[in-house]
């Protein structure tokens, strides 16, 4: 049965979509059947793997999910594209528990076809993110190494704990990954120490550095492994992938 990760952070610009896309690609390159699901209305994960957003999101409709799954240029990686129609987001948010049941049903219909399913959530701790968490087995939180890194994380942790309680422990903490890491800055080291002291062992040992290749790759509709396979970013996500696999 697949491990289902929600990649979440209510703050934008922290490397959430970058992590969703490139960790998915790393898992696929390691030989694991991987599905990337984009539920962020910005649809950046969709375009980052070379596809256009869908007119309507597959998770809103009644059609079988497998009918909306698209191949990518990375073997073993498939994607369910996002939709920029905010009406779709409103439908999911307004549906409450029914939305969670629908998403869980869609995932259950394909769960035996994949080893890993990663859900790129919107930058919010709202209803869409909570719905994704309810249907997931693990949550992964990217935290950037900047001054406001911890702002809002307490609220996000509260949402996660509520879902863990509501799902009788189905959801667990998959880990926290430090992103935009610059070892030359004292601030980076201070934030790393604070995050590791506060969260302990759930913080991944491997960090994701600032790397221009990670910024440029999405504009070409490519993962970092396709765009710059020898870059620091590609190496970092390979190491993160290995750590995720070790935590299975």
Automatic annotation (TrEMBL):
Membrane-crossing segments per the record: none
EC nos: 3.6.-.-
UniProt entry keywords in alphabetical sequence: Hydrolase
**Short name of one Pfam family for this protein?**
AAA_31
Query: Where is each AAA domain found?
Result: 3-171
Record organism: Neorhodopirellula pilleata
Protein name listed in UniProt? Soj-like protein
Query: What is the top-level taxon of the source organism?
Result: Bacteria
State the InterPro entries in the record.
AAA_dom, DNA_Partitioning_ATPase, P-loop_NTPase
The record's annotation in PANTHER family points to: P-LOOP CONTAINING NUCLEOSIDE TRIPHOSPHATE HYDROLASE (PTHR13696), PARA FAMILY PROTEIN CT_582 (PTHR13696:SF52)
Molecular function in Gene Ontology? hydrolase activity
């Amino acid at each position: 049965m697949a491990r289902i990760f929600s990649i979440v952070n209510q703050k934008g610009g922290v490397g959430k979509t970058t992590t969703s896309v490139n960790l998915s690609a790393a898992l696929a390159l390691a030989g694991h059947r991987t599905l990337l699901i984009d539920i962020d209305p910005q649809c950046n994960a969709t375009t980052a793997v070379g596809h256009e957003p869908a007119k309507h999101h597959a998770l809103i409709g009644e059609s079988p999910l497998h009918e909306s799954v698209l191949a990518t240029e990375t073997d073993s990686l498939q994607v369910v594209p996002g939709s920029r129609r905010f009406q779709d987001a409103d439908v999911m948010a307004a549906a409450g528990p029914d939305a969670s049941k629908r998403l869980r049903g869609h995932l259950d219909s394909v769960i035996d076809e994949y080893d890993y399913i990663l859900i790129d959530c919107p930058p919010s701790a709202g209803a869409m993110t909570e719905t994704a968490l309810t249907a997931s087995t693990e949550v992964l939180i990217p935290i950037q190494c900047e001054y406001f890194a911890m702002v809002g994380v307490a609220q996000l942790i509260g949402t996660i704990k509520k879902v863990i309680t509501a799902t009788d422990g189905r959801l667990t903490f998959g880990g926290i990954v430090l992103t935009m890491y610059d070892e030359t800055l004292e601030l980076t080291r201070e934030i790393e120490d604070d995050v590791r002291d506060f969260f302990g062992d759930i913080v991944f040992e491997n960090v994701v550095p600032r790397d221009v290749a990670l910024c440029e790759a999405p504009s070409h509709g490519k993962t970092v492994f396709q765009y710059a396979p020898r870059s620091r970013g590609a190496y970092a996500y390979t190491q993160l992938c290995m750590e995720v696999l070790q935590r299975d």
